[in-house]
């Protein structure tokens, strides 16, 4: 083997550390298509997007199920997809899930579940998690906040600011405000982003 051959072999070794290198025995270069693989834009047995949603839902459901096992809690997991977004609902009949159903806890678990999905799929997750009816309870709370803001506007206040909340909750607030014939806009950045209601 010449010095040039040795140098070339060293380059291949460095480049393929942790990857599958091309070889004459059927190896596949990173980025090549194996049998059954789908390139971006290709379609395999129907809509690829539907498969992506199922993958996201399955990963999220497995994560939540493991969490419930760790907490020694029983719960029924239901998966629904609406407008391309996965909704994961966890319910039980005995009310034991109340320990996980507090808004801050649900938000934290939702974020952890999204991170888990992203780590598995490489795609940003927008899934919504509901535990023990927490979303319905939060929706009722948002309705009360909007009602109070509307009362302040009717009493003569030029505007009424609501507390910071997630983009999903702000969307619900915008819809609730619009139903009252008022106007709303999101202001602030990051965790401080909130909704301001005006006439």
What is this structure, in a nutshell?
This protein has 199 residues and is an alpha+beta fold. It has helices at 3-15, 48-70, 103-121, 134-154, 167-179; strands at 76-82, 85-91, 128-131, 159-161, 183-187, 194-198.
Explained architecture:
The longest helix is centred in the first third of the chain and has 23 residues, at 48-70. Strands 1-2-3 form a 3-stranded mixed beta sheet. A 3-stranded antiparallel beta sheet has the order 4-6-5, covered by helices on one side. It has helices at 3-15, 48-70, 103-121, 134-154, 167-179, and strands at 76-82, 85-91, 128-131, 159-161, 183-187, 194-198. It is built from 5 helices and 6 strands; from the N terminus they run H-H-E-E-H-E-H-E-H-E-E. The chain is 45% helix and 16% strand. The chain is α+β, with helices and mostly antiparallel strands and 199 residues long. Helix 2 crosses helix 3 and helix 4 packs across helix 5 (167-179). It is elongated. Strand 5 and strand 6 (194-198) form a beta hairpin.
Order of helices and strands: HHEEHEHEHEE
Low-confidence stretches: 1-50
Principal-axes shape call: elongated
> How large a portion of the residues is in β-strands, by DSSP E?
15-25%
Q: Distance between the terminal alpha carbons, to the nearest Å?
A: 82 Å
Instruction: Enumerate the strands of the largest sheet in spatial order, edge to edge or round the barrel.
Output: 1-2-3
The radius of gyration is: 25 Å
Mean pLDDT: 79
Fraction in helix: 40-55%
How are the SSEs ordered, and which strands pair?
Elements: H1 3-15, H2 48-70, E1 76-82, E2 85-91, H3 103-121, E3 128-131, H4 134-154, E4 159-161, H5 167-179, E5 183-187, E6 194-198
Parallel strand pairs: 2-3
Antiparallel strand pairs: 1-2, 4-6, 5-6
